[in-house]
């Protein structure tokens, strides 16, 4: 009766997300590298790029963890309801 949670992400969607991330990261890094500015400005932009990337990963993990907690709570609630229903006897008098 226990149905495992299924992922809603297809392999194609996952590949597209990874490719999109990689292409955008490489394109911005190349753009910063060839920008006609001094080394300090280029270094600042590179640190900013790395900070945005790590912040995006942290945000994605936080959203995923919050969603996982909601899934666990719903599954626990469903298990409690299933237990109450299985133990309920409508013909039993109190």
- Largest β-sheet summary: none
Structural class given helices, strands, pairing? Answer: mainly alpha
Rg, Cα atoms, Å: 24 Å
Give the termini separation. Answer: 30 Å
Proportion of β residues? under 5%
Number of strands: 0
- How confident overall, as mean pLDDT? 85
The number of helical runs is 2
Taken together, the total number of domains comes to: 1
**Oligomeric state, counting identical vs distinct chains:** single chain
Low-confidence stretches: none
SSE series: HH
Shape: elongated
Roughly what percent helix? over 70%
How would the blueprint of this fold be written?
Elements: H1 11-33, H2 39-87
Helix pairs in contact: 1-2
What does this structure look like?
The mean pLDDT is 85. The protein starts with 10 loop residues before the first helix and ends in a 7-residue tail after the last helix. Helix 1 runs antiparallel to helix 2. It has one domain. It is mainly alpha-helical and 94 residues long. Helix content is 77%, strand content 0%. The chain is built from 2 helices and no strands.
Label this structure with key terms.
mainly alpha
Concise summary:
The chain has 2 helices and no strands. It has helices at about 10-35, 40-85. Helix 1 (about 10-35) packs antiparallel against helix 2.
